Amino acid sequence: MAKVYVVTSGEYSDYGIEEIFSEVGLAEAYISIHKRHEEYEDEFRIEEYGLDPLAEQLRKGIGTWEVYVHNDSDDFIAASPSDGTTVRKHGTKVIAADSYLTTYCFARNHAHAEKIAQDRFAKFSAEAEGIA
Question: Would you kindly state where each structural domain of the chain is located, as residue ranges?
Fold first, then answer.
């Protein structure tokens, strides 16, 4: 997967993208040149991102979803589109909170996301009870 190198500066509401490069060396050169000027007091950072990380899934009509369900029942709280970074970070695991479970998945639509989540939540519950 091709990568891009994003030069950023600032924090919180002052955070912003300075430039985007195809090579890390160009990003480093940009920072080196711009740090020489006193007017640039911000700390520059280079953030690395994969280019088109969801291309394969999107070509198949598959999106990224976040699904919540109540801990003590099969009642779904919500299933909604999610960002790809979160899905890739958490993978197929189920995350348990006080009153609900969360999972992230690649799915064709809302119903497909719920089905995937039901399967994961059932496996999670069985493992928690020592059945699986």
Answer: 3-50, 57-128
Q: Of the ranges 37-41, 46-50, 94-98, which one carries the lowest mean pLDDT score? A: 37-41
60: three-class secondary structure by DSSP: coil
pLDDT at 130 > cutoff 90:
no
> What are the CA-CA distances from residue 3 to residues 21, 52, 72, 98, 115 (Å)?
9, 9, 43, 38, 33
Query: Is the CB of residue 103 less than 8 Å from the CB of residue 67?
Result: yes
CA neighbor of 45 nearest in space, from 19, 13, 69, 79: 19
State the Cα torsion 83-86-87-89 to the nearest 10°: 150
Residue for token pair 């500066």: 9
Distance (Å) of CA 121 to CA 77, 78, 101, 112: 13, 14, 8, 14
Instruction: List, for residues 28-42, the tens digit of each pLDDT value.
Output: 999 988 877 656 566
Report the chain's terminal Cα–Cα distance, integer Å: 37
Give the list of residues 6+ apart from residue 17 with CB closer than 8 angstroms, or none. Answer: 6, 7, 8
